[in-house]
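#structure-requests
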Amino acid sequence: MNVQIVFLVLVTILPASILCQSDADTWYKGGNFYQIYPRSFKDNNNDGIGDLKGITSKLEYLKEIGIDGVWLSPIYKSPMKDFGYDISDFTQIQPEYGTMKDFEALAAKCKRLGIRLILDFVPNHTSDQHEWFIKSVNKEPGYENFFYWHPGKVNATTGERSPPSNWLSSFRYSAWEWNEKRKQYYLHQFTIEQPDLNYREPAVVAKMKEVLVYWLDKGVSGFRVDTIPSLFEVAPDENGNIPDEPPSGKCNDPDDPCYLSHIYTYDQNETYGIVYEWRELLEDYRKQHGGDQLILMTEAYSELPYILRYYGDGKLNGSQIPFNFHLLRNTNKTSDVFEFKRLIEEFLGGVPAGSEANWVLGNHDQKRLASRLGEQRVDLFNILLKTLPGISITYQGEEIGMTDVIISWEDSVDPPACNSNETTYYAVSRDPARTPFQWDDSRNAGFNWFKKPWLPISTNYKCVNVKTQRAQPRSHLNNYKRLIKLRKEASLGNASYESALFGEIYTYKRQSGSVKPIVVALNFGKTWETINLSAKYNLPEALKVVVASIESQYTEGQIVNGTRLTVPNDIGLVLTTL
């Protein structure tokens, strides 16, 4: 096949020291992290809702596929208005998930298996049922300013009171709610039942540090910090006024958060200082108690410069893993290879010296990888995720290619969907990506025995499940396992990186010290292309396939000609020398 070959070359050399996963200081570097959405992972007591005992029963699976650290979406006591992100007690377990004894058993088993346990930390807000909010409503001493309160605006002519600004909730409508007892508005950037904490109040900062220490004492290895950009909002001026946010021009619905540019409610400078304080707390705790490095993973759907600031400011350390949503936010099924390569290398180029890049392609808030980027590209993107420099984070089920589930309006439970309408709800609903994990081909996909799950099971569970894919040598799951095994053996987390484009095929070479080089070829185009990979990377003609997309004609261990390598569209290949 004759094709036009185009070379665009960029070389980025990263530290080539050999990765040591057991090192207490660097265990997370190049690590493989896995997100569990507890409500949907495994239902042990058959009530339709996943639980801690269910997670504990499946830890061997995580060990089997090579996971280094697992982080749990919230398991704290909650009224469940936002499925655990509305917390009524930061130091208690939500009863439907189990007990503190169950959590301690989970933590102990994680430790035995060498899997680090990371908890979701939700510092922006509490539930309106939290005792802190109740005390603040009542203006009890010490709690008067725990939350962001404001008397609002009063019309001089009519005497009518209105919210202090036009700020909008992330879940639609005004971010201000009137409290009749206190006679003031409180800020809620999410549901009405989630009042925002006031981090300009030193007592709030101190209380939340106590929460971190409480769970560190329980044996966790760190925290994933939820919705960190909204931690601070601009303070009222000397006259008590709060500025309106300007229109964004991105949409025409005045109730939709996209209607405004959130310049006063997101990415405020003070936020970074709090993150640096939390990192200092973790380091001080480790100095006092010993053990492995304790980590922060921060969630920010912000522009790249803001994300990179979470690493630290050159003097103070911040988050070791500021979630990299640069790819996730800016790509979809129609994105081309040039965009993927640009976004990847833009992030690599921005990571501070001594820090680790990280890659996130899915989570509980996004459409699933297979549905968002293409079912035929599951292996291609898992290869990308596992062979780039740095840390990889996988959302449960994406290792087997789970897809979004069509959720009816009647079955919808996600707040953004329920705040919408029967016509538009599906576009904003997060329910489709939160459906129960597909363990096997039995009833309810092995999630439980017979009780109706809290969300419907996918109709494809008979084929797309762990049991079936374990038994198939060519499966998404077995490819995922091969990738993590390779990642550890070849120290890919911190190996050198050299890249080139051949038309619409993104290629790169990774090598750490004297370990055999790994070469990756990812065809983002719509046609098959034949390329001379060996010449570009100064490799021998004969190369061996390590991992190949299951839709390809290539198999593990196959010897191929690197000077005339044909790569089908939507296919990923990982090769090495003999």
